[in-house]
Design goal:
By secondary structure, the protein is an alpha/beta fold. It folds into 2 domains: about 210 residues, DHBP synthase (Alpha-Beta Complex); about 80 residues, Rossmann fold (3-Layer(aba) Sandwich), CATH 3.40.50.11030. The chain has 9 helices and 15 strands. Strands 1, 2, 3, 4, 5, 6, 7, 8, 9, 10 and 11 form an 11-stranded mixed beta sheet that branches. It has a 4-stranded parallel beta sheet with strand order 12-15-13-14, sandwiched between helices. The termini are far apart.
Length: about 325
């Protein structure tokens, strides 16, 4: 890394050790980071985001961190998944070690952990030498940021330092797998799918909506309304989209459209390949949200496992 980047990492570590906040890039979205072992620093995250205190955070670890320092029970499946997918967009929920503040888990007995796959985030984590709690760097419930400019637009000067790592490569939040109850359960879909998890663990994970193993831990991004633009939005099937657009315009509304393959009206068209769509989704929603529209129409993406994470985010965005 360049001397300028090294200096920024040094400054970021100083701020984190002083209990301040630092925004950092990951492969998924930008995170609002604080020392995961400092309750006062964690309180700054909740206050700035307007996040409910019972909504848990995800702790980002350096690659050489010992899971036993963070979780009091580390099943073989957790070690296998970490070896296969870390650094990467996979979050594991395990039983929280007593040394980890309960505030990081929203008061729960569990803890969400991952190692991000971004060179700047990894450099910061290695230099800091401990865990960084980092939910998405946006106001609670709003569209997640995938560029440093999105973070600046969200918080202005309220964040002392924003590390600019360019646009996020994945663009959707990590897959969350709960391993705290004996069987793997996918609580939030992401780039790493159920088939990937089954291939590594030898066990097909349960879906959250088919969970038969008692109450699931609360986890990031699972509220009915989340990842949401401030402009009212609705999902519309492609065949019905032109008619719905005409109907709203006849009511005198200014309408922004997020379509597949080809733009429609005042809008943006995204690729119909799932990974490319997901990588651009939040930036497109933010652009439309800032366009002064009265309503947003989002063309429903195709069905299928490859689109599961996109459907999850859009369903919550329009709830």
């Amino acid at each position: 890394m360049s001397g300028e980047t090294d200096a920024l990492i040094t400054r970021a570590v100083e701020l984190l050790r002083a209990g301040q906040l630092v925004a950092l890039p990951t492969e998924t979205v930008y995170g609002l980071g604080a020392d995961a072992l400092n309750p006062a620093a964690l309180a700054r995250i909740f206050a700035l985001k307007g996040r409910p205190a019972d909504h848990p955070l995800i702790v980002h670890l350096p690659p050489d961190a010992a899971l036993e320092d963070w979780a009091r029970e580390v099943p073989a499946s957790a070690r296998a998944l970490a070896a296969a997918f870390w650094p990467g967009p996979l979050t594991l929920i395990l039983r929280r070690h007593a040394r980890v503040p309960a505030a990081v888990s929203g008061g729960q007995d569990t803890l969400a952990l991952r190692v991000p796959d971004h060179p700047l985030a990894l450099a910061l984590l290695r230099a800091f030498g401990s865990g960084i709690a980092a939910p998405s760097a946006n106001r609670f419930g709003h569209v997640s940021p995938t560029t440093a400019a999105h973070v600046r637009a969200e918080f202005g000067d309220a964040v002392p330092l924003i590390l600019d790592g360019g646009p996020c490569r994945v663009g959707l939040e990590s897959t969350i797998v709960d391993l705290s109850r004996g069987v793997p359960v996918v609580l939030r879909p992401g780039a790493i799918g159920a088939a990937d998890i089954a291939r590594v663990t030898g066990v097909a994970p349960h879906a959250a909506d088919a969970d038969r193993h008692g109450p699931a831990p609360r986890a990031s991004g699972l509220l009915a309304r989340h990842y949401a633009p401030r402009t009212p939005a609705e999902l519309v099937d492609g065949a019905a989209l032109p008619g719905r657009l005409a109907q709203l315009k006849a009511q005198g509304l200014r309408v922004g459209v997020l379509a597949l393959r080809r733009p429609l009206g005042d809008g943006i068209a995204l690729d119909d390949e799932p990974a490319a769509y997901g990588q651009r989704l939040y930036a497109a929603l933010r652009e439309l949200d800032g366009g002064g529209f009265d309503r947003l129409l989002i063309e429903t993406p195709p069905p299928g496992e490859a689109w599961r994470a996109v459907h999850d985010r859009l369903r919550r965005a329009v709830a």
